[in-house]
Amino acid sequence: ALETAARAYREAPRLAECLEYRVFLPGGKVDRKAIEYGRSGDRLFVAMLDGAGTRIIHLTVAGDVLRAQQFNIEGAYIENSYEGSLIEAFSAIGGDKIGLTVPPGLAASEAAERAFVDSFGFGVLGAMQPVSTATDNGTTLVTLKGEAGTAVVRIDEDGALTGLEMTLGEGEGAVRLEGSVSPLEVSEDDGRWMIEAGERRAVADFAALENSGYPLGSAAPDLEIPKLDGGTLALAEQRGRVVVLDFWATWCVPCWTALEHLERVAAWAESSGLPISVWAVDTGEETTTFDEQVALVRKFLAERGLDVPVVVDVDDSFFAGMHTPGLPSTVLIAPDGTLARYHSGFGEDMEEVLKAEVLALLEEAAGRSQ
């Protein structure tokens, strides 16, 4: 069934679909999103939409040019060369770090069918392996197992994808996704096929794009935020130290892995004896009181076996005051109190990157004091 579907998508002269899905998160939160995508000749597009139908990320390929934009960043866009592999192109611009994955319908056009199979893991389940099939009124249901969970794909008699279910993790902490795939009406002159550069500055990847919109070099705001275990973190009192702030939420799945890496960075910082402060900033929760959020965070940390210093942003004011960096994201404040580094999303090399950047900021500060 998967081979039939891959071949049908690969051989289709034109493709335009929409994957609408709901993500069921621990605690009862439901997040609605959609991905629109299409391919026609040497052109293709991918657009990610939020629950209100607002486009938040838009990517296009026209010939050998790839462009991408985030709609919260006005002054820059991504422009890169495209050499025929969408999966390699996504990796080159850092799509994996912000949760941008190739939709299955487009992954089928890649030369290797493995790319099509793995695309059903949405970049979070790891390599996927088909384990069983079933039928339901002419529809084939294929169950695939990955390193971190399972997916069930619905394929009709013509090889078209009609639905997708995914489960990440187990028990009360599991995240479920339910989605449906439907045809999308897109004319050949629709704006989704092209991103206009205008007067914006071109950058190479999402990291540079995010950095272009963050006020690096400016003074960090003198904010205060309560600690999970009592007391208050006051940024004004952290002068002379490198401060690492990791922004996360219990419902943010990419944040979970980022926290595991931050835990190791925090342990390294404490054992180093150097002037380094590491904090995980819990924000964006749907709780209404500080006590509710504290209970939620404690439960989450216990379930995932995490031991990391946490501050609690109960009204999201700290997040807003830090220029809404995104989730997950990491901000480093230099010893002189300036915003020194910014990372949007999460990468597997983040632990080593943060350590190197922290040491570099301490060395720079020491050099200036001599």
Describe it.
By secondary structure, this protein is α+β, with helices and mostly antiparallel strands. It is built from nine helices and 19 strands. The chain has helices spanning 2-11, 86-92, 104-107, 113-118, 206-212, 253-272, 290-304, 317-321, 350-369; strands at residues 14-24, 30-40, 43-49, 55-62, 65-70, 76-81, 129-136, 139-145, 149-155, 161-168, 175-183, 201-203, 224-226, 232-234, 242-248, 276-282, 310-312, 329-333, 339-344. The longest helix has 20 residues, at 253-272. It is globular, with a radius of gyration of 22 Å. The model has no long low-confidence stretch (mean pLDDT 93).
Would you kindly provide a brief summary of this structure?
Helix 6 (253-272) packs across helix 9. The chain has 370 residues and is α+β, with helices and mostly antiparallel strands. It has nine helices and 19 strands.
Topology at a glance:
Blueprint: H1 2-11, E1 14-24, E2 30-40, E3 43-49, E4 55-62, E5 65-70, E6 76-81, H2 86-92, H3 104-107, H4 113-118, E7 129-136, E8 139-145, E9 149-155, E10 161-168, E11 175-183, E12 201-203, H5 206-212, E13 224-226, E14 232-234, E15 242-248, H6 253-272, E16 276-282, H7 290-304, E17 310-312, H8 317-321, E18 329-333, E19 339-344, H9 350-369
Parallel strand pairs: 6-12, 15-16, 16-17
Antiparallel strand pairs: 1-2, 1-11, 2-3, 3-4, 4-5, 5-6, 7-8, 8-9, 9-10, 10-11, 13-14, 15-18, 18-19
Report how far apart the termini are: 68 Å
User: What count of helical segments does DSSP give?
Assistant: 9
Q: Helix/strand/pairing class, anyone?
A: alpha+beta
Number of β-strand runs: 19
Q: What is the ordering of alpha helices and beta strands?
A: HEEEEEEHHHEEEEEEHEEEHEHEHEEH
Average pLDDT score: 93
Beta-strand content: 25-35%
Radius of gyration, taken over Cα atoms and rounded to an integer in Å? 22 Å
Strand sequence of the main sheet, in spatial order? 7-8-9-10-11-1-2-3-4-5-6-12
Contiguous low-pLDDT stretches (5 residues minimum) are none
Largest sheet: 12 strands, mixed
Helix content: 25-40%
Shape: globular
